[in-house]
Specification:
alpha/beta; Oxidized Rhodanese, domain 1; five-stranded parallel sheet; 12 strands
């Protein structure tokens, strides 16, 4: 039902057309270690359909990159949600792409302890909290910028990020922040760090000042 693109076919397709978006559904830990440049990360083991609906462009066809055996499952889930733009999937997944010498990108992971060590010394450090505003209000890193994941595709909002900013992204547990990092990579931001463990780790780490919004204290 869905076309299986070989790595060579996918490479040619992406080189000659802007009508496609790659969606990588592997785990966050695996994705950050290596992915095809331009891929959007949306983890299958999570709010896969909801996030796909909210963040994927409506005018581009989707090519799936999945763990072995999940290609059809992902496509069917999207179709059931009204996302009927799946053109196919990468045959053999990311490993096949890597084995043929395709270009690879990565996202650097750090833990909350490393964030605590960097904050006093990096004047360009900016913590970007991609959780929902209500989550942010209930507690966040001091001076963190709140850009919810769904807003990461809006160029007007992303314009608040400076070219010299060293962006330290986090979500609640670490999945949404990887999706956010993948979206920022597509828009040309490369000074990125993903904080593993997210807010649940940050709030228990010494050396990081945590504040609440006044309205959240009531």
């Amino acid at each position: 039902m869905y076309k299986a693109f070989t790595p060579r076919e996918l490479n040619e397709l992406l080189r000659n057309s802007d009508d496609y978006v790659m969606v990588d559904t592997r785990s966050a830990a695996v994705f950050t270690e290596g992915f095809i440049p331009g891929s959007v990360f949306i983890c299958f083991d999570g709010q896969f359909v909801e996030r796909a609906v909210n963040i994927l462009p409506a005018d581009r066809q989707i090519i799936l990159i999945t763990a072995a055996g999940r290609e059809e499952t992902c496509a069917v889930l999207l179709a059931d949600a009204g996302v009927n733009r799946v053109a196919g999937y990468l045959q053999g997944g990311f490993e096949a792409w890597k084995d043929t010498g395709g270009a690879i990108d990565m996202i650097i992971n750090i833990d909350a302890g490393e964030l605590a060590m960097d904050i006093p010394y990096d004047k360009n450090l900016l913590v970007v909290d991609v959780r929902h505003p209500v989550e942010y209000a209930e507690g966040h890193v001091q001076d963190a910028l709140n850009i919810p994941l769904a807003d990461m595709k809006d160029p007007g909002i992303i314009a608040h990020l400076g070219e010299r900013d060293n962006l330290y992204l986090h979500s609640a547990l670490g999945s949404r922040s990887v999706t956010a990092a993948s979206l920022l990579k597509i828009q040309g931001y490369n000074n990125l760090r993903n904080i593993t463990g997210g807010w649940e780790s940050i709030k228990h780490t010494k050396g990081i000042t945590v504040v609440k919004e006044p309205g959240a204290l009531n």
